[in-house]
Amino acid sequence: ARKRGYMIFDTHAHYDDESFDEDREELIFSLKNKGVGTVVNVGASVASTKKTFEIVKKYDFMYGAVGIHPEDVERLDESHMEWLKSLAADKKIVAIGEIGLDYHYDEPEREVQKKWFARQLDLAYELDMPIIIHSRDAAADTLDIMKAHHGDELNGVIHCFSYSPEMAQIYLDMGYYLGIGGVVTFKNSKKLKEVVKMTPLERIVLETDCPYLTPEPYRGKRNDSSYLKYVVECISELKGISTEKIIKTTCENAVKMYRIK
Ligand code: NI
Fold it and tell me: Model confidence over 196-220: pLDDT tens digits?
C-alpha cells in the first residue's frame, strides 16, 4: 500500500481553464497518486467563477473561491455581488478571490479596478470569508485599499507574491499568508527567494496558478498541481527545512487559512 504521508495542498489553481478541456477529468483524478491531497480552484471572471463552482462540486478533494479578478471587472454591477454571495453560501466555497489590482496593462481603468476591489473586500467582510489577493505593479494602492476596507480584520493570502521583503513584512504583520509557486524556481527570482527565506514557514502556502507559471525545469509547459514538488524542493533548499516538513506545514497552513473542517 502507498505510504500514508502528508500531501500537497494547492491553494490556487485554474482547472476551469480551456487548456484543460482535453484531459481535465483524467488529470484531476490522477493528482492523488501524484502526492496532491487538496486543491482550491479560484474564480477570476464571471464565466470562470461559474465553472469553478461546477468543478468543485464534482470532486471531494477540491474546494473553490469565487470572485472577479481586476482584469475582468469592467462590466460588473451590483447583481454580480448578489450572485457571488449566493455561491459563497455553499460549503465547498472557502474564499472570495481572486480580487485585487493589476496595473501591468492600462485597462480596465484604475478607478474601476479600485472600486470593485473595495466592493469585494467589503463582501468578504460581510460574509466573514478569507480573501485571495491578486496584486501586480500596484503595491501602494493595494495596501491603501485593503487598509480602508477591513484589511486588518480579514485574513487570507497574497497570491503570487511579487513585492519586496519590506512589503512582505507588512502583510505578515497584518496576519496574511504569502502564496508561493513556480516563480520561486526561476533564475531571475532573487527578490522572491529573499522573501521566502525571511518568511516563517507557518505563513507560506503553496500554489500553482496553473495552467500558468510552471516551475523549473518545466518552465513554459502547462502547469498542474503535481509540479508543486519542484516548488517544495526549492523552498526546502532556501530554508534548510526537509521537504516532508514543507509539505506538512504548508498543508496545515492552508487548512487553517481556508477554515476547512
Ligand atoms: Ni490565479
Answer: 999 999 999 999 999 999 999 999 9
Distance 148 CA to ligand 1 centre (A): 24
Spatial CA neighbour of 157 closest among 15, 10, 257: 257
DSSP string across 23-46: THHHHHHHGGGGTEEEEEEE--SH
**pLDDT at position 1:** 41
> How far, CA to CA in Å, does 56 sit from each of 14, 38, 201?
11, 11, 28
Q: What residues pair up with 205 in beta bridges, in sequence order?
A: 179
Is residue 201 within 8 A of residue 239, CB to CB? The reply is: yes
What is the pTM assigned to this prediction?
A: 0.96
Cell numbers at 37, concatenated: 491531497
Nearest to 234 by CA among 163, 178, 184, 174: 184
Q: How far is the CA of 86 from the centre of ligand 1 (A)?
A: 22
Give the up-direction half-sphere exposure of residue 169: CA atoms within 13 A in the CB hemisphere: 6
C-alpha 189 to ligand 1 mean position (Å): 19
**Burial 218-252, CB ≥16 within 10 A → b, else e:** ebeeebbbbbbbbbbebbbebbeeeeeebbbbbbe
Arithmetic mean of pLDDT, 217-233: 97
Q: CA 156, CA 130: separation in Å to the nearest integer? A: 5
Which residues neighbour ligand 1 (ion) by CB within 5 Å?
209
Residue 1 CA to ligand 1 centre (angstroms): 35
User: 136: CA distance to ligand 1 center in Å?
Assistant: 12
